[in-house]
Amino acid sequence: MNTSLETFILKSTPASIFDPNLDMETRIPLNNGTSIPALGLGTWQSAAGEVEKAVAHALKVGYKHVDGAYCYANEDEVGKGLKEAFDSGIKREDIFITSKLWCTYHTKVEEGLDKSLKSLGVDYLDLFLMHWPVPMNPNGNHDRFPTLPDGKRDLDHSTTHVETWKRMEKLLSTGKVKAIGVANYSKPYLEELLAKANVIPAVNQIENHPYLPQQEIVDLCTDKGVHVTAYSPLGSTGSPLFEEEGVQKIAKKNGVEVGTVLLSWHGEWYEMRLK
Ligand SMILES: NC(=O)c1ccc[n+]([C@@H]2O[C@H](COP(=O)([O-])OP(=O)(O)OC[C@H]3O[C@@H](n4cnc5c(N)ncnc54)[C@H](OP(=O)(O)O)[C@@H]3O)[C@@H](O)[C@H]2O)c1
Predict the structure, then answer these.
(1) How confident is the model at residue 15 (pLDDT cuts 50, 70, 90)?
(2) Could you read off the pLDDT of 229-240 as tens digits, one per residue?
C-alpha cells in the first residue's frame, strides 16, 4: 500500500464525497471575463461511431463542456454529436467547446483552427489551446506525426512556442475563438511564454491526479491567473489509481465507487488552490 498517497488523498477528499463542490452547472471564471464549466467530456481515444453518440448523450443529460482536439482525429464525429444535440434544442451558447492546435500547425494557426471549426460544425470555439509547446514539421511525411528517416519525430526548429503563441493571440480579433490557452506547459515553458505574451493564457490544461499533482506549475498558474484544467483526472487508460489500496479503502469506508473518490479529490484540490 502506498501510505503517503492514502494520507495525501485523505487530507483533501472526504468532505466532497457526499457534498460535491463541482457539478455540471459549476462555472469557473477565466481571466478574459468568460467562464469555463468545471467538468467536461473528454473525447481522446473515443472511437468513430461511439464518440458521436457519447457527445450527443452527454449534452442531453447535462454536460456543458466538450474537450476535443484536431490530433484526436475524430472531430468530424464529435461535430455530428454536437449537431444532434443542437438539433434537439440545446443552444450553442450554453455549451463550452474546447479544441487544440496540433503541433504540425504551429506556423499556420488559423488554418488549424479552421479545420477544427469545420469538422465540429461551429463558427467559434470557446477555448483554443496550444496542444503542446512543440512545433513539428508542417510539411513532413505525416499530417499529425511526421518522422525523420531515422524514425525520430520531425520537429520544426524554425519557430518557437512563443512565436506560436503570438500567432494565436491574433486569432482573438477574428471572433473565431473566445479564449486562448495552452496545454502541457511546465514552469519553464510558461515563464518563457509569459515574459513575451501580450495575452495571458486563460487555461493551462495539464495531466493532474493524485499520482501527478504537478504542484510547481499549478502554483505558478494560480499566481498568474491561469486556470488549470486537469486532464486524465482518473489517471488515464488502465489507471493503476483504481487499484491503489489506499484509494479503495477510502471508497469502501465511505460506501462509494473508487471513481467518486478520485473525482472528489479534484474538487477539494480546487478549493485548496483558491485558499
Ligand atoms: N491536453 C492533452 O494533452 C490531453 C491529454 C490526455 C487527455 N486529455 C483530455 O482529457 C480527457 C480524459 O483523459 P483520459 O481519457 O486520458 O483519462 P481519464 O479520464 O483519467 O481516464 C479514463 C479512463 O478511466 C476509466 N474510467 C472512467 N471512469 C471509471 C470508473 N468509474 N471506474 C473505473 N474506470 C473508469 C476509463 O475506462 P473505460 O474506457 O474502460 O471506460 C478510461 O480508461 C481526454 O479525453 C482528453 O479530452 C488531454
Answers:
(1) low
(2) 999 999 999 999
Q: Quote the ligand 1 centre to 64 CA distance (angstroms).
A: 17
Residue 261 lies in a domain: no
208 lines ligand 1 (CB under 6 A): no
pTM above 0.90?
yes
Which range marks the domain in which residue 106 is found? 33-201
Q: 199-256 pLDDT, tens per residue? A: 999 999 999 998 898 999 999 999 999 999 999 999 999 999 999 888 888 888 888 8
Q: Which three cell numbers stand for residue 32?
A: 478574459
- Dist CA 36 CA 51 (whole Å): 22
Specify whether 189 is catalytic: no
Look at residue 182 and give its three-state secondary structure.
Answer: strand
Residue nearest to atom 8 of ligand 1 (CA): 231
Instruction: Determine which residue's CA is closest to atom 19 belonging to ligand 1.
Output: 232
How many whole angstroms separate alpha carbon 235 and alpha carbon 163? 32
Cell of 168: 494565436
Distance of CA 176 to the CA centre of its chain: 19
Q: Is residue 87 part of a domain?
A: yes
What is the whole-number distance in angstroms between the Cα of residue 260 and the centre of ligand 1?
14
For residue 55, the domain's CATH number is: 3.20.20.100
Q: Report the pLDDT value the prediction gives residue 4, as an integer from 0 to 100.
A: 65
Q: How many structural domains are present in the chain?
A: 1
CB of 42 sitting under 6 A from ligand 1: yes
Residue pair 258/247 in contact (Cβ under 8 Å)? The answer is yes
| CA 234 to ligand 1: nearest atom | 20
